[in-house]
Design goal:
- By secondary structure, this protein is of the alpha/beta class.
- It has three domains: 3-108 and 321-347, Rossmann fold (3-Layer(aba) Sandwich); 112-229, 3-Layer(aba) Sandwich (Rossmann fold), CATH 3.40.50.10800; 232-311, NadA-like (Rossmann fold), CATH 3.40.50.
- 43% of the residues lie in helices and 15% in strands.
- It has helices at 3-9, 15-19, 22-36, 50-53, 62-71, 84-93, 117-131, 145-153, 164-174, 184-193, 237-246, 260-265, 272-281, 294-303, 327-335, 348-364; strands at residues 40-41, 43-45, 58-60, 77-79, 99-101, 135-140, 157-159, 177-181, 201-205, 210-212, 222-225, 251-254, 268-269, 287-291, 308-311.
- The strands form four sheets. It has a six-stranded mixed beta sheet with strand order 7-6-8-11-9-10, sandwiched between helices. Strands 13-12-14-15 form a four-stranded parallel beta sheet, covered by helices on one side.
- Helix 3 runs parallel beside helix 15 (327-335), helix 5 packs parallel to helix 6 and helix 8 packs across helix 16.
Length: 365
């Protein structure tokens, strides 16, 4: 059986879960949580549906949830309500006694999938030919375990959207150049905020295996992997213009995975946690247009009725892969915890190198 066939097989839930009512599903989830107590830990990413988040023992960003999973040493089962790379990070940080489970194996991340290990190894070989040993690799935590392992093996580190600036500064203390994977927008926004010119940044195209740059390559300081978040790239300059016209007094806050031109026009830009805290701390009566995932925007609208909140893109939909985790899949995974399906397991060698990259970040940010 090939990988795709196995993936599909492990994602098809029994018909009975599709036929259960929401009340029945919720009752079953609560029953299992009560039975298992501290043996079960359910982390839920900010972008998950409300029907899933209601059962989360903790909500947060991907790295934060992986760290919380590791801290819950009594938990034998980590049912990670997020996407594949997040569950991989949880497996890397948790102990051998803990089992990390993803309710739907199809819950991936298009950004993470834009950099695979074969492409990265080919790119590294070519970049060494062009620049010798002058490059340090950095990878966004929104990447596969294999990419984190590659970066760790080559002396680099992971970054989050909260600490990317600190980690880019750290990297430049080590080498003349950085390779930033897999999100070009976070890399560009971070480097530009640190004063690096756009004319000092190149694009690495993993499809053509070529460096995209016009001019003398010796001036290049940042090599950006040609990847992006399919959600955040859909916020546009026109969205900002339309919002400014329709709501002149509205604050615009966006995630740094958005395009550079959108970030430049926004009033504020920062990580998911930064956005949440900005809204929580905002004065009653203020108005906000938010450029991030729709499940989170809708939750912020519901939780802050004293503020006017809209999506910066009125036609934005939730992250499709994140949305694969739903209540039927969650209950199915809880019902089958003792079985061997949907377990996320990173090989020891990859995990060891990936942990090096994660530890470098934690030590230097």
């Amino acid at each position: 059986m090939n990988f795709l066939a196995a993936l599909e097989k492990n994602s098809i839930i029994p018909e009975k879960y599709k036929q259960m009512t929401r009340d029945e599903l919720e009752s079953r989830a609560m029953e299992i949580k009560k039975q298992l107590g501290s043996r079960l830990f359910i982390p839920g990413h900010h972008y998950q549906k409300d029907e899933v988040v209601q059962f989360a023992d903790a909500t947060g960003d991907s790295l934060q949830l992986a760290q919380l999973s590791a801290e819950n040493t009594e938990a034998e089962f980590i049912v990670f309500c997020g996407v594949h790379f997040m569950a991989e990070t949880a497996d890397i940080l948790t102990s051998e006694k803990q089992k990390v489970i993803l309710p739907d194996m199809r819950a991936g991340c298009s950004m993470a999938d834009m950099a695979d290990i074969q492409q990265t190894e080919r790119a590294w070989e070519r970049l060494q030919e062009l620049f010798d040993d002058t490059i340090l690799p950095l990878t966004y935590v929104n990447s596969t375990a294999a990419i984190k392992g590659f970066v760790g093996a080559h002396g680099g580190a992971t970054v989050t959207s909260s600490n990317a600036e600190k980690m880019v500064k750290w990297a430049f203390e080590k080498k003349e150049r950085i390779l930033f994977l897999p999100d070009q927008h976070l890399g560009r926004n971070t480097a530009a905020d640190l004063g690096i010119g756009l004319d000092e940044m190149a694009i690495w195209n993993p499809i053509t295996n070529e460096l995209e740059f016009d001019g003398d390559i010796s001036v290049i300081k940042v090599i950006l992997w040609k990847g992006h978040c399919s959600v955040h790239e859909n916020f546009t300059v026109q969205n900002v213009i339309d919002t400014r016209y329709q709501y002149p007094n509205m604050n615009i806050i966006v995630h740094p995975e958005c395009r550079r031109e959108v970030v430049e026009l926004a009033d504020m830009a920062g990580s998911t946690s930064y956005i949440i805290h900005a809204i929580e701390n905002a004065k009653s009566g203020t108005a906000w247009a938010i450029g991030t995932e729709m499940n989170l925007v809708n939750r912020l609208i519901k939780n802050h009725p004293d503020k006017k909140i809209i999506s910066l893109n009125p036609h934005m939909c939730p992250c499709l892969t994140m949305n694969r985790i739903d209540l039927p899949h969650l209950v199915w995974s809880l019902d089958t915890l003792e079985e061997t399906q949907n377990i996320i397991k990173v090989s020891p060698e990859i995990a060891q190198n990936a942990k090096l990259a994660l530890e470098k970040m934690l030590q230097n940010s």
